[in-house]
Amino acid sequence: MLRAYLAASPLIGLAAPALLRRRLARGKEDAGRMAEKLGQPSAARPKERLVWLHAVGLGEVLALRGLIGAMARHDPDLSFLVTSTARSSAQVMAANLPPATQHQYLPLDAPAFVARFLDHWQPDLSVWAEQELWPGAVVASHARAIPLALVNARMTEAGYARRARAGRLYGDLLARFALIAAQEDGTATRLRALGAQAVRVTGSLKSAAPPLGVDAAALADVQRALAGRQVWVAASTHPGDEAEAMAAQAALWAADRRWLLILVPRDPPRADTISQALATQALPFVRRSALPSPDTSVWLADSYGELGLWYRLARAALIGGGFDAIGGHNPWEAAHLGAAILHGPDVANFAQDYSGLHQARAAIKVTKGGLATALQSPDLPAQADRARALVQAASGALSPLAADLLALIRGRA
Fold first, then answer.
1. What is the pLDDT, as a whole number, of residue 204?
2. Which end of the chain, N or C, is less packed with Cβ atoms under 10 Å?
3. What is the pLDDT of residues 332-344, one digit of tens each?
4. How far is the C-alpha of 292 from the C-alpha of 296, rounded, in Å?
């Protein structure tokens, strides 16, 4: 199957221009950087040894920052290249780039595009933080003797079943990785069953990522505007989360006009639909382009990349994805910034993370209709402190993994 994929992959190059034009028309591509998807770089390669790290999802891209920091502490002369595919992840990463780090889009998986990318960047190590491996890029890197590592791996039973149906495709790819770091034991077992070697369990990178960045001037301005308000945030929300958040804010607002909800949808283009729901609930709101007044109940944050601001303002955060069939979202960004963590019933995608939080009494599971009560718990400040202690401990645990990754570079030499 891998040979068949590689034989057909030149067709990706033929279809790429039309595909990218359609995506650009839908606002899913960056017009100024679309050539990167064709393997054409928009930045120079640094002179130092270069570690190339790739992830797709926004949370996975941001989680790489902790690993970059740990590797840089071992070797301050390294440079780093982070690639991703989604426009939203690129926008957020641009505001949170670690030192000596650049961002590019990963080229589409056609031989000519991948070769152009590797010819220019010539990475000394390739680190993947995704389950959706790009076969052409993996095989081409391995053929050039670039060491490959897979980190932050997580695979559910359903994900394993899908990959197992692909026969030896994934086994052939995984066999090319010199180091594979899984988040938990179940993932490690499934990866081994697919044919992976050198698998270890190291936990999630997300808990060890550094705090999200913020514009200090913007933070000061908003803090002045919100002085005296009781601020909470509903972050990375979906419709079910928003319904719970609006109901809770309506109850809190009716009792005390100091309460302010900052509502941050996972998909900001849904803001018009959310605005209609807020109007139906008779909750006075403004969008991100305006500052809340004392008469504002909800601030609709229809913008990308500002969770570092919103979490710093909030006493508590409802982490979205728990009241829909989503599986939850990343709680650690809120934990870093002192917001107490609340979540809905469905956190399947972060089961291990939330298990650790609950064992430390650092998060609250909220059932339907219970959010307003949870937001008034007197234990929230202590809960936030316990969560912050967990992320501080996790940040120190990356050093062994960073050292092992750097050993792959030395082994290449």
1. 86
2. C
3. 999 999 999 999 9
4. 5
> Facing residues of 83 across strands?
54, 104
Can you give 134-199 as a three-state secondary structure string? CHHHHHHHHHCCCCEEEEEECCCHHHHHHHHCCCCHHHHHHCCCCEEEECCHHHHHHHHHHCCCCE
DSSP string, 54-99: E--SHHHHHHHHHHHHHHHHH-TT-EEEEEES-HHHHHHHHTTPPT
The pLDDT tens digits for 242-287 are 999 999 999 999 999 999 999 999 999 999 999 999 999 999 999 9
User: Please, are residues 83 and 52 in contact by the beta-carbon 8 Å criterion?
Assistant: yes
Token look-up 């009241």 returns 323
Task: State residue 413's pLDDT score.
Answer: 61
Q: What pairs with residue 300 in β-bridges?
A: 263, 287
| Tokens standing for residue 221 | 């301005």
Instruction: Give residue limits of the domains in the chain.
Output: 2-210+396-412, 216-387
Query: Tell me: domain 216-387, CATH 3.40.50.2000, correct?
Result: yes
Burial bucket for residue 307 (CB in 10 Å: 0-12, 13-18, 19+): buried
Residue with tokens 């002085």: 227
> For domain 2-210+396-412, which architecture applies?
3-Layer(aba) Sandwich (3.40)
Closest CA to 362 of 346, 347, 340: 340
Phi, psi at 319, each rounded to 5°: -85, 120
- Pairing of β 148-153 and β 285-287: unpaired
Name the amino acid, one letter, at 165. R
Contact 54, 83 (CB under 8 A): yes
DSSP bridge partners of 365: 343
Q: Which amino acid is at 393?
A: A
Burial of 181 (0-12, 13-18, 19+ CB in 10 A): buried
pLDDT of 94? 81
For residue range 359-373, what is the model confidence (pLDDT) as tens digits?
Answer: 999 999 999 999 999
Residue found by looking up tokens 């913007």 in the block: 218
Distance CA(351)–CA(61), nearest Å, equals 20
- For residue 111, what are the contacts with CB-CB under 8 A and spacing of at least 6? 6, 9, 10, 13, 136, 140
Q: How far apart (Å, rounded) are the C-alpha atoms in residues 203 and 132? A: 19
Q: Which residues of the chain have pLDDT under 50?
A: none
3-state secondary structure of 275: helix
